[in-house]
Structure formats: structure tokens, C-alpha cells
Amino acid sequence: MDISDIAKKLGLSDSKHIIQKAAELSRLCDIRLDSSAIGVGEICKAIICLEIAASGWEEVIFDHPTVIKLSGMSEKAHNRSLNSMENGLGVKTKLDIRELGIKFGCVRLIPFVQKGLSLYKDRFLAALPASRRTSADFTRPVFTAVAFYLCAKKHKLKIDKLKLIEDCGTSESEFFSVSTSMKDLCHDVLGILKEKKDPKDVKGN
């Protein structure tokens, strides 16, 4: 099963530009990486190349359940292989807010996440010296993931944080660090009211 066959199963047969890009990534993968060393077979390699190629096009919604089924791997193993290939190829997929909304059943959060992210970037840059503003990088998926998580929390929606951390390919410590920064700068949009202290926890005079 080649890339074109897999693209057809994923509903991407008409997306010739994505198939072409995926084929280029596959050839690059053969040159730069030992696929067997990172536990990626030919079918899984083709699927991941399509996934990376599709990530640059916002109009494309990637069918993750079908991807996992076709790869023959667990979702955790697939994400690990995706991260390994991205690192080896020097690319990073964009974490799409719409896909997160669909995946976690929180589509109504999308505009709030977009607003929160935009506000965070503006306020973060405003707090930096002018000389450092051009080097600030908000392209890492962790920023989108944290904004999504904080918006869900503010709207009292339950989100599997560990699953979200896994999906964006970051660590718990980085997720916590960005979360703290985002809450500090955008508490009016992404923060939640502190819970009232239990009277038993308040010491008497």
C-alpha cells in the first residue's frame, strides 16, 4: 500500500499537493532516518508523512481514528513515532485548534482559544524588550494545547490533560510552565476564580 492508496483511505485522494509533499518527506526519511530504529514500518511511515504534510493546510481535517487504525499501533506509540520522525526530519506539525475541538468534543471552545492565544502573544511580546520580540517563538504546539486546556477549565469542561500533553508532544513540566505564564498574563480571559478555602484550613487567631 503506497502513499496514494493510504491518502485515498484517509479521504485525501483529491489533495494532490499533500500527497506530493508526503512523498518528498518519505524520500527524505529514507535518507536521514533508520525507520526500523524508531519502530516505524513502511505503512506507518507513509501515514505519518501524510500527517505531517497535511498539517500545513488549515482546511484539511485529518481523520485521527482512521490514522491510528491504519497504522496498526496504539495511539501512544503512534504519537511517539510521529514525534521521532518530526525531530529527525527537522519539522513540527501544527496543533490545530479545530482538530482539538473535534477530538475532545469541545468545538464551542474554538473562538475562545483563538482569542486567548492572540491576547497571550500580544501581552507576552509587550512585556519583552524590543530587542527580544523578534526572537519570540509561539509556533510550538504547547501554546495551543495550554490555551485549549485553560479555556476548557474556565468553561467547566473536563479535558484529559495527560492525553493533551501527549498529543502536543511536550513534557508535563513545560506544559505547567506555559500554563503558569498564560494564567499570569491572561487571567481575565483564561484564569478561573480561586476556590474558597475550607474553614477548617483557616487557622484561628
The coarse overall form would be globular
Give the end-to-end Cα distance, rounded to a whole number of Å: 74 Å
Approximate helicity band: 55-70%
What is the string of helix and strand elements?
HHHHHHHHHHHH
**Average pLDDT value?**
81
Q: Report the biggest beta sheet as strand number plus sense, adding barrel if it closes.
A: none
Structural class: mainly alpha
Please, how many helices? 12
Which parts are unreliable, with pLDDT below 50 for 5 consecutive residues or more?
195-205
Tell me the β content. under 5%
Cα-atom radius of gyration: 20 Å
Q: What is the number of strand segments?
A: 0
Q: How would you describe this structure in keywords?
A:
205 residues; mainly alpha; 12 helices; 0% strand
What does this structure look like?
This protein has helices at 3-9, 16-32, 42-54, 64-71, 75-89, 97-103, 110-126, 130-133, 141-154, 161-167, 172-185, 187-190. The protein has 205 residues and is an all-alpha fold.
Short description:
It contains twelve helices and no strands.
Itemize the secondary structure elements and their pairings.
Blueprint: H1 3-9, H2 16-32, H3 42-54, H4 64-71, H5 75-89, H6 97-103, H7 110-126, H8 130-133, H9 141-154, H10 161-167, H11 172-185, H12 187-190
Helix pairs in contact: 2-3, 3-5, 7-9, 9-11
